[in-house]
C-alpha cells in the first residue's frame, strides 16, 4: 500500500495545491482569538442565566424557578442542536467517500458559525444601548444554531467541491448576511418567521446555489466515479434524515410564543411532515420503471414539509392546512430532484450536490408564500383578539397593523431573503474563486483523501486505474 | 455490471410481479387525500394549542404558561418519536441487505399510521359530542405514535417478505383494530396500561405473528443467503436498540399522571431495563459453546424489560420489583430466541423475522400479568388514599372499584388484546394473501433490490452464482 | 468457510483460554440477584416519585405538579443517558473490528454499574438515618449515570484488551471507589463539581490508565493488524462523538441549581466546546505534512472542552472565559494525541487504546484547576450576596467559608481524585491480572471474534495469512 498511497498523493496534487497546512490553522486560530476578544468586550449572561437571578426573581415576583425561560426552551434547543450537528452532518454522508468531510466540516463550520452568530445577531437584535453589551440566554443559543443552519444548507450545494478554508469563509460571510437580512425581515418589516422558511431556508438555499454557480466546474464529470452513494453511506444518511425529520417540530417551535404558540407549531409541523412522506414515496415510485423507490428522494424530499411550514407553523393554519402544505411539498420537492436538478446543472450551470434547491430553496419560497397567505387570512374569530396580537406581535409601533398589511410584509420579507441569498452568494462566490483557498481539482472532488488522513484508500481508484479489476472496490485495504 | 443488473432484474421477476408502480402511488395519494378531507372535517386544535389559550388561562386561573400540558409532555413525546422512527427503524437494519426497507418502509407506514391513528383514536376516545370534532394536543400525538408502534412491531414479523403496499394495508387495519381494542381495554374495562404492555406490545406482537402465519412461505429457505446479518448491519441495528432502550423510560411515562406518576414510571423502567441487560448477557453466553455472545440477543432481548413494565411502570411496584421483572424478562426473551423461535417456525409455521414473539408478544403478556398482580396487590397504605384514586383513576363510574376487581379487569384486558391480535391478524393476513400486492418471490425475500434503486448490487448473488468466488461478497461494485 | 472458522477458533485458543461460558453468566446472575436483594432492603421512591406526592404537595404548599423536580431534570437526564450508552458506546467503535465489544460491553457494564451506583451513592450521600433507607428520584438516576461514566472512561484505556468479566470487575470496584472519592470531595471537602471534571473525568481517567499500566502487554504489536480504523468504523465513531458533544451542556448542567445555575452551565459548556473544535482542527492540520485532518483528533479532542468545564460550568466564568478554556483544551488534547500518547506507551508502558489521557485525564485536571481559580476569584459583586451562597452552597457548616478557602478545597479535591484513580487503579489492575478472567491473547486483542458470534469472519486474517491476497480484507465472507 505504500506505493499506492504515494501514487494517490502525487495524483491528487498534480494540478491544484490542496495543501491547507498553513491557511486552515491560521484561520482557525486567528478567528477563534478574535471571538474571544469580541466576546470579552460584548457578551454577558442575561438576567435569567446570571447568578443575580435570585434578586431578579424577587424583584419581578416570580414564584418558581421553573418560570426561567430555560425550562420553556431547553428541550427544543437540544433537539435543534442535534439537527445542526447530527442531522445536517449525517444527511450529507450519502456520498460513497465523503463522510468525513460531510460530518467533520459540518462540525467545524457550525462550531465557528455559532460563535460569530451570537455576536452578529446580538449586535443587530439585542445590543443593550445603555451598557453596550449583548446579554445571552438559551434563546440566543437557539438563534445562533438557526443562523448556522443557513450556512450548512449552503454547504449542501458545494459539498465535496470546496476546501474547509473556503467553507469557513463562506460561513463568516453567510452569518453576517444572515444577521442583516434577519434584522430587515423580522425587525424592520416585522414579518413573522419562527421556523425560518424565509430567513433560514430561502436565504441559505439561494446563497448556496449562487456560490455554486460562481464556482461552476465544467469538468466535474472527471470525478464522476466518486459521485453517488454506496449501500452503507445511504444508511448513514438516513440517520441524518430521521433526526432532522423527527426534531423538526422542535425547530419550528423553538422560539415561538410560550404556551399555545409552541404547542401549535409542534402539531402543525408533525402533521405536515407526515403528509410529505407519503407524497414523496408516491412520486419517487412513479419515477421508476418498476415502481422502485430512490433513496435520494426519501432522504431529502420527506423533509420539505418542515421547511415549508417554517413561517406558518405558529399560525392557526389548522391541522388539515398543515397536511395540505405537506402534500404538495412532497410532490414538488421530489419532482425537483427528477426534473429541475438536471435542468439547473445543464442549463443554468448550477451544480447542486445535495439538491438544496429542492429541499430548501423551493420549499422555503413555498413556506414564505404560505405564511403570507395564512397571515393575510387571519381573523379575530379564529385567533381571538389577544391571540391575534400575541401571534403576530401587533404591539408597539405595529399595534395598528392589519392582517392584510401583515401578509404584504410577509411577502416582502420573502423577497428580501431571496435577494440577499442571490446577491450575497454571487459576491461571496467571487471571493471563493480566488486561487488561494486550496480547493480540490475537478478529478479529486467528493474524495475524503484530499483533506483527511484515510487509513485505507479506496483501492480501485488508484492501484488499478485501467484494469477490469477496478470494478471492485475492495473496501478494507491493509497497509 | 450492465449485464449483472439486467440479469438480476430478470431473476427477480421470474415468478412474481413486484412492480408496484401503480399500486404504491395510488394508495399513497388516495389515502393521503382522504386524510386531508377527514382532518378538515374532524380535527381541531385543543384549547391548549389554540390561540384562544390566553382566554382559557384567564378563565381557568392558570397563572403561568408553563402549566400548559405541552411542558409536561413534550420532552417525552420527542423521545417516543425517536423510538418510533430511529428506534424501530434501525433495530430492523440487522439484515445484510434490507436496511433501506427496514428504515424506509418503517418511515412510510409510521407516517401514514400516525395520521390515521389521530382520527381513529379521536373518534373512539375524544370525539366531542357537541361539536362533533376531535381536539388534539401533544398527548394526542403521543398516543398516535403509540398506536403506530403496534403496527411497527407487526412489521418485524414480516420484515423482508412483504411489499410496501401490503405494509400500508397492514397499517390501515392495524391502527383500526388498535383503536377498538384500546377503547375496550382502557375505557370499557377501565384497565390501566400507560406504557402499553397489552394494548401495544401484546396486540402488535400477536397481530404480526398471525399475519406471518397466514403468509407462511414454505420455500423461504430459497432466500437463505440474504438472511442473517453482516458486521456493519449489526452495528447499525445497535443504534436502534440503544435508542429504544434509552428512551423506554419516556415511553412508559409519556402519558402517565403529571408529577409522581411520570417520575415513578421513569425510575421503574430505567431499573427494569438495566436488570434485563445482565440476564440477557448471561443466557446468551450460556447458549454458546465458548460463552460467546450473540448480537441477536443483545439487540432484542435487552429491551424485553421495557415491554414487560408497560402496564405496571406507573404503579408502586417498588424499585426491587422492577429489577425482578427485568431479571426474568431477560431470561425468558433470550431463551425464546434460542428455543421458541425455531419451534414456532418448524411446528407452527410462523416465520418471525425479527423474533417479535420474544421481544413483544411474550414480554407483553408478562407485562399484562405483572400489571394485574400489582394492581390487585395495591393498598391504601402504600399509595395513600388519594394516590390510589389518582393512580388507578377510581373516579366517576369507577369510584367504588376495589383493587382486586381492578386486577381482574387488567387480566381481562390482557385477553382482549391477545384475541384482537390473533383474530385481527388472521383476517388481515388473508387479505394480504391476495395476489395483487406485489410481494416478492420466495427467493427474493430480504433483498432491497426488489423495491429500491440500489446503486451497487451485491455482486456475489448474481454474477457468479456457481463459482467459488461467490464466497466473496464484494461490497462496492462500480458501474 | 467451515475450515476457516475452525482454524480461527484453534488459533484464538492457542495460548489463552477465552472461554467465559462459566464466569460471565455466573457473575451476571449472582450480581444481579445481589442487586435485587440490596434494592429490596435499601431502595425506596423519594417523596416526589411516591404516590403520596399528592399529600406532600398539600403539606408543602406546592401549587403545581410542574414543580416536581422531575420537570427540572428529566430532559437533562435523558441527554446524559444518551451520552452514556450511545455516546461512550459509539465513540469506541472506531476500531475496525471491535464495534460489538465497544457498544455491547459498554451497554453491559453501564447497566450493571448504574444499579451498583444507586446503592453506593445512596449509602454515602442519602441514606436516611431514621429509616435506614435510600430514597431515589430523577437526580439519583443522573448521579448513577455520572458514576458509570467514570468506569466507561476507564474502559477506553483497556478497550480490546480485556474480557467482559474483567470489565464487570473493573466496574464493581470503580463504582465503589467513585462513591468514596465523591463523598470525600463533595461532602467532606465541600468542593463543587457539578459536571465532574474531578470526580468523573480525572478519577476515571487515572483509574483506567493505572489499570492499563498494570495489565501492560509487551507483545501487543502482535495484534497490530486489528488496531486502527476503517472508513465506516470512523463514521460510526462520529455518532458517538457528536452525541457526546451536543449533549455535554446537559451533562454539565444536569445537577446544578434550578434556574440560573442550569441555564449558565449550559451556555458556558456550549461555548467552550465550540471553541475547542476550532483549535483541535488547527493543531490536527498542523500535525500533517499537507495539512490533512486526522479523525482520531476530531473524534476525541473536540470533546476536551466539555471535560475541562465540568467544575466551573456553573460558576460565573463568563462567556469569554469559557471560550478561553476551550481554546487551550483543544490545543493540549490534540497535542496529547500527537506527542504524549506515544511517550506514555514507550516510556511509561501505558497502552491507552482510546487516548483517555488526552480526552479525560489531562482535561479533567485542567478542569479542576480552572474550577479552583474561578472559585477563588468569585466575588459578591459578580454573584450577588445570595448568588454566591447558592452557587457555592455556603450554608450549614460551611456558611463562613470564604471563596479563597473554597478555591483551596477545590484544589484539594483535585488531588483526592488523582490519588483515588492511581492507587485504586493499581490495586484493581493487580486483581485483573489473575489468570482466571478469560482475557484474550496478545495476538487476538481488538478482535470481536473472541467474545462474539461473528457471522462473517474477516477473511484476510485467517484464510491467507502469508499471501499477498491478504492485503484485501473482503468484508462479507459467505458461509
Automatic annotation (TrEMBL), chains A, B, C:
Keyword field contains Signal: no
GO biological process: ammonium homeostasis
A GO molecular-function descriptor: ammonium channel activity
Keywords, in A-Z order: Ammonia transport, Cell membrane, Glycoprotein, Membrane, Transmembrane, Transmembrane helix, Transport
Pfam families, A to Z: Ammonium_transp (PF00909)
Localization of this protein: Cell membrane
Residue ranges of the TM segments: 22-43, 77-95, 102-122, 134-155, 167-186, 198-216, 228-247, 267-286, 298-317, 323-344, 356-378, 411-432
Recorded GO CC terms: plasma membrane
InterPro entries recorded: Ammonium/urea_transptr (IPR029020), NH4_transpt_AmtB-like_dom (IPR024041), RhesusRHD (IPR002229)
Coiled coil: none
Ammonium transporter AmtB-like domain ranges (all copies): 68-450
Topological type in the membrane: Multi-pass membrane protein
Role according to the record: Functions as an ammonia transporter. May play a role in the elimination of ammonia in the gill.
Subunit: Homotrimer.
Family membership: Belongs to the ammonium transporter (TC 2.A.49) family. Rh subfamily.
Protein name: Ammonium transporter AmtB-like domain-containing protein
Organism field: Oncorhynchus mykiss (Rainbow trout)
Phylogenetic placement of the source organism: Eukaryota, Metazoa, Chordata, Craniata, Vertebrata
